[in-house]
Please model this.
Amino acid sequence: MSYSRSALPTQKNQNNAQQISLFNGFFLRWNALVQSEKVVVLGIVLIPLWWFWGWSYLLLFLGLGILSHDIYRYGSIRIQRPSLFVIALVLYGLYDIILTIFHGLNNSTELGMRDLIEPANTIFSPAFILWYIKTRDIRVRPRTVIWSFSFLVLLMVAVWAYIFFIHRQATFLPPRSLFGALTNKPLQYVPGLGNTNYLIPFRPEDSSISGLSRYFYFFHGPESLALVSAFICLLSLEERSKLWKYLLFLTTFFLLLTSGTRSVWIVLPFALFIWFLLSAANSKSSWLFFACIATTSALVLMFPVVTDVTTNILAGTAESTSEFRGDSTAVRSEIYRRTYEAILNSSNFQLFFGHVVPGETVLPGYAPAMVGTHSFYLGSLLYIRGILGSVLFLTYWTSLISWLIQTRKSRPFGCVMMFLIFSLTFCVMAFESVVMPIMLIAVVTQERDYQLNKF
Model:
């Protein structure tokens, strides 16, 4: 185990002692955790409770809790000058609110409290928490995060076993979440009313893999489940115990398959390949690895027969993947096509500032299938927020990733690779509600003793 020279011996001994006493059998020693670790552990293991609540405004509650804690304990908020990614995210949130207000005034539509509270939950609270984490150098040991997600995975496997073996994946009437009941949502669930308002652990009429329905478990959609599962898979590879590592990875990968989210199925192996490539680049055998890559590339490019075979394999894989759930693929393709056409036909004002709201539905009777949805880059940014909003968000995103790469020696490399998965899936997925929580966990997960990552 190697450490940076800046770490003091006393700090090393203290952290090593805490690492040894971290577990009591299978369970964590609560007294061995610092306050930030307790917050993260509770936030993860209580995900079933957040699901029962409806996943609404959790980041806002967390931000207000941090704010209240520091004011009560210290009398003020002890933070430094914000980084570029914090400033860019705040500007993006202000831009979002200003656009919404002007759109409401121009179209004579009333603005509700949700129009103001939602940016506070999804943008301003994460910006404040990021600012706080960086200023205070908040760190949570990776093994505490891995244990917490392992506990969550066990719960999801138990839910799957009950639904598959006992409930037989039969149809059911989903009850309302607590938030859905408080906001007086209809008792009968209809697509478009918001999955967060109902408790939907799986969708019996849809399929993921052969013989299985499409599962959500404790999340409000299969895409959210897929992103969380991908993050757990990456984190599991950081575990030192081989048995724990492989069991957690394989079990979580099975849960990922039950989500039926093709984009994450494809992107996760690609991210693992990039990880392996970077690992090989830092090893003594890197010359052999890159020699194999160079030889393979030469074969593909120099010989037409090999090129044709490779192209056919890739085309067949893409086609079979797309046809796995052909109905949704056709709808999504139509959404992307009409969104792209709407952007091309936009006025200069709309192109720069965006359309503010999604367009018409491409599938009559199905509200979620609207122009400007199902793609964060194409829909949520370019179509809805325009060029200006896209520049603001991408400034935040690239500067945050740049900071993560600069500080990668003290954090699990899987946390950095998760941002690659986000960046790729944004092409064909919306900005899911779990993105910000995963991002915050990835940022805060670091070795407190500055242990160098082997990658």
Q: What stands out?
A: The chain is about 65% helix and 5% strand. Residues 376-406 form the longest helix (31 residues).
